[in-house]
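A quick word before the example. In earlier lectures we treated sequence and structure as two separate objects. From today on, think of them as two lines of the same record. Here is F-box domain-containing protein written that way.
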Amino acid sequence: MSKHNEDVLFLIFEELKDDSKSLFSCLMVNRLWCKTVIPILWKNPWCYDINYSNKNYLFAIIVSYLSDDIKESLTRQGIQLPTVSFQLLLFDYLSYCKSIDVNTISIITSIGTPLTYNRFILEQECFILFMKKFSELKYLDMRLIEHQIFYFPEAKFRFESLCELLCDTSIDSSYFYGLAWLCHCIQKLIIDNVEPKNYHGIAKLIGVQKNLKYFEWRDDHDLYFPGPNQDSYKEIFLALENKGHTINHLKLFFLYRYDSLQMVLPKLHKLKSLAINIEPFSIDQLKLCVYRDLEIFRIGYYELKEASIIIENSGGHLKKIFLESSYELDDVIDDFNDDSLIFIRKVYENCLSIEYLSLVFPPSKHHFNEFERLLKTCKNLKSLLLVIRYMDDVETDELLLKNGEDLLRLLIRSAPINLREIRFLYDVKFSLKALEEFFEKWRGRPSLTIFTYRSIYKESSYKELINTYKNDGIIKDFKCESFYTVLGTDFNM
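And the structure line, produced from the sequence above:
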């Protein structure tokens, strides 16, 4: 019975693996709970939102595993080490660990010494220790790495099991050659492009993977490429092209346009999630991008026409569509009225399973009618981000209030029963009367969370009204946040 209880607890705690606060509290319940939680916490002890530079006990646990000879040598070097003995530990913590985060290790070792050279020596001893103690290595964040850890004793056996790698392009190509020699089973690869260079090493690493499922490339915002037509990513794209039979998730953020991407995207026909800027594509090229298994789609808000083509050629499985922007939506979009109308239609014609959706359209009667048809058709909607936008700057306070009133009445008439969250941006404003009417008619439905960025709703009259309906359980929450918080709907890939 005890073993049965332990197994059940483990399954429950596994579901809480991303909730460090709850897991840490479970340590204090009793020995069984503590014994069950420790392996989960120590599988990736570097991932929690805590201040590692103040966690002396974590530093002490790691150092306790070092041999007396190594500790004596480090102490002679002037490195301050805690005196905890390995024999005093309640658990063999490092035996549970399956991950390395280079930056976090650097922060922890800084507790022992502020000197760059001494920290380098201490970090190296930690990595050698990890290669010996870990049963396997599943996750590696090697950004800012200074040690070629794949050459350490027993590293070959650890890196053979690596599943997830996060790195950046400041790393010398020799690191990627070393990884390509050892790691053939990486399933998730994320690369921060912080330095323009020859990417042959990265392309080689991609090429040797047997089951690469997730690929993400992120250009740093300060990145600069000299020359007007330099397609420096060609090798990367060619390597990805050969992974069309395995890649399910693709997330690309580029600062520049690259023609070679147009040849690769149609080959990745098994995509389940796609986040990309596809502005340079022609209509004919986009029609070749057919993703029948696509479930999550993220694209720039100004690419409505391109997005409509991708949606039309999807297989009807889309659950999340997010129109993304890294800045306020003040750019004029060519053919905005027509493109936004077509986009709404393509959603309700092809996405009956949609649950999370962002829309950008002007507050015209025609657009409101099409939006209402979408609400009546897409009955699985849970979350909406509505960007109601005049592109010709003719909005007045009277118009904004009229837009808000029309929109709220439309939602009352036609919102699906599953809708739990609405985010409002730009050219809508709600009077007290319209908001009270909306809340009252929402009574009897599941409670609703509303986000907006207008500070007017922080005024006492609005707060009093909102709190009344929150107390009645009609509104779960009404948040007045920054523009980017409202825009930042959680559509994780």
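Notice the following. The two ends are 39 Å apart (CA to CA). We will return to this example when we discuss secondary structure assignment.
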